[in-house]
């Protein structure tokens, strides 16, 4: 049975563990969560409470676990803003060293959300030590608050903190993940080639790019930049003025969605309630509606086969619903999104176009969708994902196209770029 040790600021236990850590960890298949700091939450009632007290109490628990030959698979660190907690983390790694030692390091909650605001040289040094000893490192160093500067107007060390954050990304660990999804998709040869694509009634203007097999290609941009119009144009929802789309060396017209589906394209739209779901239909009908030919038996539909397929997708995508007969409009946003994804997966697309796939859904469902996107890429599919969440683009995608004023203002590598560069490109033609 897998176990977790969670080391974090006790003020973050409810907010951080329940809404962020545990949904992600449970999606990773961890069966038992052990939160030693939760036991010590009563210390906040004492006037003499300090992080040193917390660390000392945790060391007592460590000693007991050592005597009982306690073993664990993962440490979740939700707070790293004090030397005492970082020392505790290092002691844990040294005391319970195993070949499965995994550290998930998440400094986003540090200093009450003010990431890297006023941290000392000693804390930076201890962070580096943790980084060197970690097998897997989760760094939320690309969140908007890090680069906006709004929270740090009175902090004279903003530039130094940014440099430190960038340096930490390059230290030590064997694998680096940002969203909780470990990226191991292999990118192949060019599959999709778009040349000089322009819209008749949209601001899309001479957009050209290539996407490869197994690649997750992000699309960033401000509202009105053409980021949503791009996948809609490729899918044939809007009228094309000019341009050429080539799939696997063969030109495809994609004059309408029906033709696009035949050519191996699928589109998950931005507004799922308005243009994604059929609210008056149930889950089975929403899942199979784009693949009805598969279920035709003469002039009738094979309902038994439809039920079997829908049940398979409900289980594989972990859709939470009483039955298949439940109307999709009664499901949560995350479960609605999973049903729409099941609909398109059933068409076996070569290119999957996703417009804001995780908007308005909870953290646990987000992780599952990220994992699904990665699984599709690993099968050689090309995924094009539009998102307004910078951390999502940087954490999930391989490359990012940046749209500005209907034009492609730049293409960046997700591994080496940062939010500042992307925002500069997004404002290029505004």
Description:
It is a single chain. This protein is of the alpha/beta class. A hairpin with a 2-residue loop joins strand 13 and strand 14. Helix 4 packs parallel to helix 5. About 20% of the residues have low confidence. It is built from 16 helices and 18 strands. It has a six-stranded mixed beta sheet with strand order 12-15-16-9-17-18, sandwiched between helices. A four-stranded parallel beta sheet has the order 2-1-3-4.
**Uncertain runs:** 8-47, 107-118, 138-158, 164-180
- Major beta sheet, specifics? 6 strands, mixed
Question: What is the first-to-last residue Cα distance?
Answer: 54 Å
Count of discrete alpha- or pi-helical segments spanning 4 or more residues = 16
How are strands sequenced across the largest beta sheet? Answer: 12-15-16-9-17-18
Mean pLDDT: 75
Return Rg in Å. Answer: 24 Å
- Beta strand count: 18
Helix fraction, binned, reads 25-40%
Strand % is: 15-25%
Structural class comes to: alpha/beta
Principal-axis shape: globular
């Amino acid at each position: 049975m897998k176990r977790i040790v969670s080391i974090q600021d006790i003020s973050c236990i409810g907010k951080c563990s329940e809404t962020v850590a545990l949904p992600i960890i449970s999606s990773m298949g961890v069966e038992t969560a052990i939160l030693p700091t939760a036991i010590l939450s009563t210390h906040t009632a004492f006037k003499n409470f300090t992080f040193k007290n917390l660390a000392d109490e945790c060391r007592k628990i460590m000693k007991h676990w050592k005597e009982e030959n306690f073993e664990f698979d993962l440490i979740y660190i939700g707070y790293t803003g004090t030397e005492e907690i970082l020392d505790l983390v290092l002691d844990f790694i040294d005391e319970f060293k195993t070949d499965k030692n995994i550290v998930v390091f998440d400094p986003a909650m540090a200093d009450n959300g003010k990431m890297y605001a006023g941290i000392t040289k000693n804390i930076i040094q201890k962070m580096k030590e943790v980084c060197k000893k970690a097998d897997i490192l989760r760094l939320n160093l690309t969140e908007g608050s890090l680069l906006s500067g709004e929270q740090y107007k009175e902090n004279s060390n903003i530039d130094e903190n940014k440099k430190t954050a960038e340096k930490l990304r390059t230290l030590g660990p064997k694998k680096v993940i940002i969203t909780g999804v470990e990226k191991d998709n292999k990118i192949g040869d060019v599959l999709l080639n778009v040349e000089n694509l322009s819209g008749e009634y949209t601001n899309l203007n001479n957009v050209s790019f290539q996407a490869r097999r197994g690649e997750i290609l992000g699309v960033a941009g401000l509202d009105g930049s053409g980021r949503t119009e791009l996948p809609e144009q490729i899918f044939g929802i809007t009228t094309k003025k000019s341009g050429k789309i080539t799939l696997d060396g063969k030109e495809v017209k994609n004059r309408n969605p029906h033709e696009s589906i035949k050519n191996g394209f699928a589109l998950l739209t931005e507004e799922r309630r308005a243009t994604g779901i059929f609210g008056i239909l149930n889950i089975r009908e929403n899942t199979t509606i784009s693949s009805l030919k598969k279920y035709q038996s003469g002039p009738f539909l094979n309902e038994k086969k439809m039920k079997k397929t829908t049940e398979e997708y409900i289980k594989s995508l972990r859709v939470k619903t009483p039955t298949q007969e439940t109307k999709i409009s009664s499901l949560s946003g995350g479960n609605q999104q999973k049903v729409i994804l099941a609909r398109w997966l059933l068409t076996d697309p070569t290119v999957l176009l996703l417009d804001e796939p995780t908007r308005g859904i909870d953290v646990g469902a987000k992780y599952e969708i990220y994992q699904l996107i990665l699984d599709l890429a690993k099968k050689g599919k090309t995924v094009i994902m539009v998102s307004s969440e910078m951390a999502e683009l940087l954490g999930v995608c391989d490359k990012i196209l940046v749209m500005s004023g209907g034009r492609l203002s730049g293409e960046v590598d997700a591994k080496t770029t940062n939010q500042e560069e992307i925002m500069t490109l997004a404002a290029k033609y505004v």
